[in-house]
Amino acid sequence: GKRMSSLRIATWGIAGISAALFFVKPEPIYLYLGLALLGAGAVIAEIANVTYYALLDDLATPENVGRVSGFGWGLGYLGGIASLLILFFGFISEGNLLGLSDENGMNVRLAMVFCGLWTLLFTIPIFATIKDKPQPEKTNLPRQGILDAYKELFASIKRYWHRPNERHIVYFLVASALFRDGLAGVFTFGAIIAAGTFGLSASQVIVFGAASNIVAGLSTIAFGYLDDKLGPKTVIMISLGSLSVLAIVMFYFGRLSALKLITADESFRIFWIIGLLLTIFVGPAQAASRSYLARIAPEGHAGELFGLYVTTGRAVSLLSPALFGVAVYLGWLFTGRNETQYWGVLGIGVVLIAGALVMIPVKSPEQLAAHIEENETV
Questions:
Q1: Which of 23, 93, 207, 213 is found 20 to 30 A from 86 (Cα to Cα)?
Q2: Closest by alpha carbon to 223, among 28, 60, 69, 34?
Q3: The predicted structure's pLDDT at residue 206
Q4: What CATH number corresponds to the domain at position 253?
């Protein structure tokens, strides 16, 4: 009942922390202040995400939840690249539009203030239009500490597992934790493969990053309509299948590029084509994952489920980096060459395939609803 109040507090906290990074100067003495602010911001952002995701339960209907989720996630990509371009050309680049000096890191520090203001500005519409739903008064509720919260977390997982009608929630949480980590790895390690294997310069990587975010944003919005027509599970499986195939294609051409079997110009063009194709399917899988959970959440439990969703995702967040590193090392063992960054794409592919395999037995929202209705009538 206090979702908007919680989201407002968390948002103001994130904006304040962003602006407070202005006080972190490029000197060793400010290292711990910077780390503390970044750590606090990361924690608050995760808390805010739980509340933000759970709003789908309030804002969307079963008929349009895919479009709402896809539109929101897609605009996140587009808004992110818009703010990045403003920061780069307005604040950070040499000869920036505002004429800011880089002495004592002033241009970057002022950019952090801009980030805080950007956050406040673009959350005004949601706070102005969406209000907390009235809830029955609850008195004498016991206070919960962090340890109690984690006990409640594991108790919730156990409860869902032991209820036949809700066991698929646990399957989905495991599957989504795996493939979401793989999806994050696509963007995280794409720049490493672009520069190390396909020979893109730093400026070319930045340009590709901007283009990939635009493509990801538009494709995520478009796939939101498919989510409502075909169902979120179908969108997830199409996305994961396509990404897995493209990972193998990227590995093949990465090998050709590393062995100099294709020219530098060919490497450049091939990376752009495969890279943009990859980004088409990352956002839709993320948005459909969120809409799936919103569709199957039991009445009044959306916040709890999205809390589990975020927590399980964080629990496996080291998997893609670990398998990327292992794959690169195996590439070095097999080839005896140092330029084996492209082997890392196989590690990410393994994570995506693992998530897809766990996702296969998960019932679609329609199948799950029919299963529950059948059990209730028996």
A1: 23
A2: 69
A3: 87
A4: 1.20.1250.20
* Residue 59 to residues 64, 225, 227, 291, Cα–Cα distance (Å): 10, 16, 16, 12
Cβ proximity of 178 and 341 under 8 Å? no
Question: Following CA atoms 34, 41, 12, 300 in sequence, which dihedral angle do they give, to the nearest 10 degrees?
Answer: -170
Take residue 299 and report the two structure tokens written for it: 């009445």
For 113-152, what is each residue's pLDDT tens digit? Answer: 999 999 999 999 888 888 776 665 554 555 554 555 556 6
Q: Is residue 142 part of a domain?
A: no
**DSSP readout, 284-314?**
HHHHHHHHHHHHHPPTT-HHHHHHHHHHHHH
**CA neighbours closer than 13 Å in the CB half-sphere of residue 260:** 1
DSSP-derived letter for residue 165 is T
| pTM for the full predicted model | 0.88
Q: Which residue type is seen at 142?
A: P
Q: For residue range 184-195, list pLDDT tens digits in order.
A: 999 889 989 999
The answer to whether the CB of 194 falls within 8 A of the CB of 205 is: yes
Alpha-carbon Rg for the chain in angstroms: 22
Mean pLDDT in residue range 311-320: 89
- Specify whether 122 is located in the same domain as 252: no
Name the strand (E) or helix (H) holding 83.
helix 65-87
Domain count, the chain: 2
Alpha-carbon span 177 to 170, nearest angstrom:
11
**Ranges 30-39, 122-131, 283-292: which has the least confidence:** 122-131
